[in-house]
């Protein structure tokens, strides 16, 4: 490698590494700058103590507990976990700064410490002696995003697998937060252009394709039936300000309004269930496995944010409408009643206090529509039954139940630390209120020390979804102590206590749900 090439690869420029979502496409570009590669990212290490997250309320009717329990002692309640992740964001910029290729790679993503002591080269799986029989080991690396972006005379054109994020991240979330575990991505072509003092964006997504067959050289494939592909088209209009612009305006005593609206249409005409169902007897994928589906979905997502010198109020609201004309998964066996879906959700955040004030206060609110079927329907198991008493279960059971109306928040939109994050998996069929307070007692040239406390009260919107048939879910108290240094190091100690309410009791066994708590330590090294 020549010195010139090495210098090119090590050229680091100060700008965002990559776009989180449609409102950010083009931020990667630096017009007028020379060609180079920018590398940013972070390393995250997390450790957890989880106590009594099964709530000592016994199993559900299917024999499942609300959370895994220790193997060794039936009366034990403490579990531990520790994992790490190295995130690298790379922007390779062309001469002049008007074009760039972008990638995000997560290394050892959520790999449990001690489970894979040997890291093999490349991107393959890494089974090791530390893995117990049957243990599924994580990939050494995950290529999250890979796309290109270019500035044209009429707007910005981006294409590839890129981040899908909007507003607060309640629906689409690219997983940029320090504690996020996933990342929404879209195989997308997007065009963004300024018009009438706003930004307009049009996107086309390949949401799902296949089945495929190899070509002659066995290096590429061809889609056997384009009619069974899932496609999505979206139109967005928005007026955003970046963080630096908002800070400048607030310092000058000005108010800043940001807002946006995105509407999406998704459809699928035909389907080949044999390509994704877990069949006990494999079948040959041919014309006999193709069946009509008739899937259509519409969504609208509105986002608004007001920032003043002492106040931030930000909200997002979503409405989803869907219809599956033919819900059967068995070719030749048809159902006469379509499955429909009407879902809604909203989230509101507030923050009162000037930037330099040591005290900040806020009230966060949110709700997600529910479905009358038993269980919350957040992440139902394939063999789960929709019977009263279950925590999670399918929300549709054609032909008797043909609606799926529970809206699900994106799991990376964190509301609490135990109930929605660990037990249910996300906010669905529920409403919550979260008052909070933050105090920053120490602000030095090297960093800041801060404390944060929040109380979260939650209830189910439909009592039929809870394990007990009662609506109240719980009251949770979350506390945080955090040190943030100026050079990119952050240490956070997070404690949470959940006081479960009647909705999580087990009336069949006469057991009341007992409190649970968690303790997490997170270290982040940003570069």
Q: Count of DSSP E strands?
A: 20
What string, H for helix and E for strand, traces the elements in order? Answer: HEEEEEEEEEEHEEEEEHEEEEE
Provide the structure class.
Answer: mainly beta
Q: Portion of residues in helices?
A: under 10%
- Which residues sit in consecutive blocks of at least 5 with pLDDT less than 50? 1-16, 121-138
For the report, how would you describe the main beta sheet?
A: 18 strands, antiparallel, barrel
> How confident is the prediction overall: mean pLDDT?
90
What would you call the shape? globular
Task: Give the C-alpha Rg.
Answer: 25 Å
In terms of DSSP E residues, the strand content is: over 45%
How far apart, in Å, are the first and last alpha carbons? 24 Å
In short:
The chain has three helices and 20 strands. With 527 residues, it is mainly beta. Among the domains are: 185-356, no CATH class; 371-404 and 414-527, no CATH class.
Explain this structure:
By secondary structure, this protein is mostly beta strands. Among the domains are: 185-356, no CATH class; 371-404 and 414-527, no CATH class. Helix content is 4%, strand content 46%. The chain contains three helices and 20 strands. The strands form two sheets. The protein has an 18-stranded antiparallel beta barrel. The longest helix has 9 residues, at 243-251. Mean pLDDT is 90; it is low at 1-16 and 121-138.
